[in-house]
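User: Sequence recovery, please. Input:
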C-alpha cells in the first residue's frame, strides 16, 4: 500500500503542509514537528511521490540520453560514462535508441519534452536533417550533443578528432609500404564518418597516392552489411593489400569476410580499425586500432549538461578530445607486444 502525505500528517499529528516542508526541505518546521514527521515516515515506510515532488520542485531528477544502438559496445561505454557522472549528482537516466532513424529521433525528443526531463544528451542520427534538433534546442531544455555534431545546432558538443585519428591509421599503413588501401564505411550522413573519410583522403594525397574510388566501399551500420561488402571487395581481381575500417561493426564484418574468403591477417591483408574493442587484444592477430576515449567522452558530456542545468552561462562549446593510435599485430607490425604510437 502506498501512503500519502496526508497519512504521514495524520500519523505525526501535523498538517500536510508541514510534512511537505519537511520532505521538500524548504520553509519552516519546528524541531519537534520534524521529529514527529520523520518518525511517521519511517513507521509507514512512506515514499515521496516523484511526480508530485517534481511539480513542486519543477525538476524531475531525470536526464534523457539518446544514442544510435546500445548493443554497439561504443555506445554502451558512452552511456556508462554519462550515468557515472550524473548519478553522483542525484540524477537518473532515461535511455532511448534511434537506429539512426531521424523520424524516431524526433519522436523520442517529443517524449523527453513531455516527460519534463531536466536535460538531454544526444548522438545525432544525421548531420544535415536537424530542424527538429534546432527546435528542441530553442525550448531552452539543457541540451548537449555527443560523438557527432549537427548542422545549425549551437549547443555544447563533445567529439573526438576523427580526421586526425583516420589520418594516423592510414599514414601508418602507407608507412608499412601499402599503396592500395581500402576503406569500409557506413552512414556518410554523420560527421564521424565524414571526418574519418577526410583523414583517409588526406593521408593518401599527402603521400602522393591516388584515391581510388573503387577501394571506397560504403554499407549499412551493421556487421553483416560490412561482411557482405568486404567479401565482394576481396573477390575482385585487384583487392587492396590493406584495409581501414571506420568503426567496430565495420572491423568485425571485415574480419569475418577475410576469414570466409580464405585470406590471412596481416599476411594477405593488413587491417587498422577505428574503435578499440574488448576483444581487440585477445583475438589473433590482435587489432591495431584508433581508440576513442569513450568513457571519458560520456563523463565530459554529462559535466557539460550538469553545468547547463545549474545555469552556468557561457557560449556553446565544441570540445574535441584526442584519439589514441594503438599498434598491435593486424597491421603487419612484427609479431610482438602492442606498441603505442608516439604523438
Ligand atoms: O562505433 C561507433 C563509432 O562509429 C561512433 O563514433 C559512431 O559515430 C560511428 O561513427
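Assistant: Recovered sequence (343 residues):
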Amino acid at each position: 500500500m502506498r501512503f500519502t502525505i496526508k497519512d504521514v500528517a495524520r500519523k505525526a499529528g501535523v498538517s500536510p503542509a508541514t510534512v511537505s516542508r519537511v520532505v521538500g526541505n524548504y520553509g519552516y518546521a519546528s524541531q519537534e514537528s520534524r521529529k514527529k514527521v520523520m518518525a511517521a515516515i519511517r513507521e509507514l515506510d512512506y515514499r515521496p511521490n516523484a511526480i508530485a515532488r517534481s511539480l513542486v520542485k519543477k525538476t524531475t531528477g531525470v536526464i534523457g540520453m539518446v544514442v544510435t544502438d546500445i548493443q554497439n559496445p561504443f555506445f554502451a561505454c558512452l552511456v556508462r560514462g554519462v550515468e557515472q557522472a550524473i548519478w553522483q549528482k542525484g540524477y537518473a537516466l532515461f535511455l532511448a535508441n534511434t537506429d539512426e532513424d531521424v523520424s524516431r529521433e524526433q519522436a523520442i525528443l517529443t517524449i523527453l519534452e513531455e516527460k519534463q526531463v531536466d536535460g538531454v544528451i544526444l548522438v545525432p542520427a544525421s548531420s544535415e536533417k536537424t530542424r527538429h534538433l534546432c527546435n528542441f534546442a530553442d525550448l531552452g531544455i539543457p541540451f548537449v550533443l555527443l560523438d557527432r555534431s549537427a548542422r545549425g545546432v549551437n549547443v555544447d558538443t563533445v567529439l573526438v578528432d576523427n580526421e586526425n585519428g583516420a589520418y594516423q591509421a592510414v599514414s601508418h599503413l602507407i608507412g608499412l609500404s601499402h599503396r592500395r588501401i581500402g576503406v569500409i564505411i557506413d552512414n556518410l550522413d554523420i560527421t564521424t564518418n565524414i571526418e574519418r573519410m577526410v583523414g583517409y583522403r588526406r593521408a593518401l594525397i599527402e603521400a602522393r597516392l591516388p584515391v581510388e574510388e573503387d577501394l571506397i566501399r560504403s554499407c549499412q551500420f551493421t556487421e553483416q552489411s560490412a561482411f557482405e561488402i568486404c567479401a565482394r571487395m576481396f573477390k575482385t581481381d585487384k583487392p587492396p593489400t590493406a584495409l581501414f575500417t571506420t568503426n567496430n561493426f565495420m572491423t568485425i564484418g571485415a574480419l569475418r569476410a577475410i576469414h570466409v574468403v580464405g585470406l590471412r591477417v596481416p599476411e594477405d591483408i593488413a587491417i587498422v580499425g577505428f574503435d578499440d574493442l574488448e576483444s581487440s587484444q585477445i583475438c589473433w592477430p590482435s587489432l591495431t586500432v584508433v581508440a576513442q576515449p569513450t568513457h571519458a567522452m560520456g563523463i565530459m558530456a554529462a559535466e557539460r549538461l550538469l553545468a547547463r542545468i545549474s545555469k552556468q552561462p557561457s557560449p556553446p562549446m565544441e570540445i574535441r578530445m584526442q584519439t589514441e593510435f594503438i599498434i598491435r599485430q593486424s597491421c603487419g607490425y612484427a609479431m610482438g607486444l602492442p606498441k603505442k604510437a608516439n604523438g
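The domain at 5-57 is CATH 1.10.260.40 (434 Repressor (Amino-terminal Domain)).
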